[in-house]
Amino acid sequence: QVQLVESGGGLAQAGGSLRLSCAVSGRTLSTFPMGWFRQAPGKERKFVAAINWSGSMTYYEDSVKGRFTISRDNAENTVYLQMNSLKPEDTAVYYCAAFFSLGDNFRDGADVRYWGQGTQVAVSS
To answer: What pLDDT score was predicted for residue 26?
Structure first.
């Protein structure tokens, strides 16, 4: 079966940076559009970013535009989320996701086929 394993989470101060990685095993990364979601304490899971199979198209939630960058390295079967200018409101568990496709409702998580286990990101002020 396909497994997605996140890494790179941790504690950062406001204004700092973190880079999350998601390693895919069981199938090549190029098979799936990929993305990231996050869930803050007491909040629902929300879309953060997505990238198509080739890496030519990217999508971002409004609050992270200009600060976060999603990328992928298909040769390494890995997708990344570079997070800069972190804010306390970025604190959440971040989940890597593999999509069936990037359909109209992909931001809602309806098109997610596989989920990672999550990695904690905590941003202090």
So the answer is: 81
